[in-house]
Write a structure and sequence with these properties.
Length: 297
């Protein structure tokens, strides 16, 4: 029987509606709303698109949104000055510096400059460290945090399950493993992390009750690599040539969707799977950062 589809589009829409209601209630009780600032350096069209989508989603949820656009040749010190200004701005509770930054800017220096309490991307070393030591009161990176929500909201609680994560990047694979290892809801899994140096990857993936793939290469996971009934989460986002389409390309994941859906119990599509969850969790982190700031006041 084909797998059940996990629609990130639907789950993200539900979460965004919950956030809208939460923000409206906070406006009533606290008299203020959360604020999200996005900082974009340069005019990369993809980054402009992402920042625009984030702003639109924030406004739809009732979150105050400030978009700062800087020229591509902005000196690093000037960018750091902007970040420090946002750190000190009481109307802003979440700061997102859109990556990648131009080559002349040290990305790490900028990420470290963001106040960890406003680091809604979850990339600051303080938050990375807290997450990897199992802290629950932490702003977690949006994509893996979104994957946890997808599992919980489809009744696929990872507790006690063997989860295999393919990919060990700082933005997906590693924080994914840390989240799943935490004690408590959304965690308590037995986690294996595989990567390009893992010998006999199919043997490892076939052991997964839940298989999470974040590699960046189409067809990395084929049907023979999946245990029957497993939950398959495809984080990959790849453009492949499709001369027959208007755009000339299609977006596909890392999993051979058509074949794997005949074996898996649950599966995420691409597009419409993990992708929409990332922005929803960015908004969720912004509201969490805001409520934490109220607790500190
Ligand atoms: P990276 O390139 O940073 O990491 C890829 C990981 O995959 C590495 O750990 C690498 O191993 C591993 N890998 C590469 N080839 C193989 C292989 N043949 N077998 C096993 N492991 C392999 O990518 P990201 O983590 O940043 O992104 C992964 C994918 O997820 C991309 O397609 C990206 O576009 C997508 N993505 C989607 C998001 C969303 O919102 N939906 C958000 C973020 C990412 P090694 O470390 O040994 O090199």
């Amino acid at each position: 029987m084909p797998a059940q589809l996990i629609s990130g589009r639907d789950i993200a829409a539900t979460i965004r509606e919950e956030i809208r209601e939460r923000v409206a209630a906070l406006k009533e009780s606290a008299g203020r709303v959360p604020g999200l600032a996005t900082v974009l350096v340069g005019d990369d069209p993809a980054s402009q698109l992402y920042v625009g989508m984030k702003k639109k989603a924030a406004l739809a949820a009732g979150i105050h949104s400030q978009q700062i656009q800087l020229p591509g040749d902005t000196p690093q010190d000037e960018l750091l000055g902007v970040v420090h200004g946002l750190n000190a701005n009481p109307e802003i509770h979440g700061i997102l510096v859109q990556l990648p930054l131009p080559d002349h800017i040290d990305e790490q220096a900028v990420l470290v400059a963001v106040d960890p309490a406003k680091d809604v991307d979850g990339f600051h070393p303080v938050n990375v460290g807290k997450l990897s030591t199992g802290a629950l009161d932490v702003l977690a990176p949006c994509t893996p945090w979104g994957v946890v929500q997808m599992l919980l909201r489809t009744g696929n609680d990872p507790s006690g399950k063997h989860v295999v994560v393919v990919g060990r990047s700082n933005i997906v694979g590693r924080p994914m493993a840390s989240l799943l290892l935490r004690r408590g809801r959304g965690g308590d899994a037995t986690v294996t992390v595989a990567h390009s140096r893992t010998p006999d990857l199919p043997r490892v993936t076939r052991e997964a009750d839940i298989l999470i793939v974040a590699v960046g290469r189409p067809d990395t996971v084929t049907a023979d690599m999946v245990k029957p009934g497993a939950v398959v989460i495809d984080v990959g986002t790849n453009r492949v040539d499709a001369p027959d389409t208007e755009r000339g390309y299609r977006v596909v994941g890392d999993v051979d969707f058509e074949a794997v859906k005949e074996v898996a119990g649950w599966i995420t599509p691409v597009p419409g799977g993990v992708g929409p969850m990332t922005i929803a969790m960015l908004l969720s982190n912004t509201v969490d950062a805001f409520t934490a700031s109220l607790d500190r006041d």
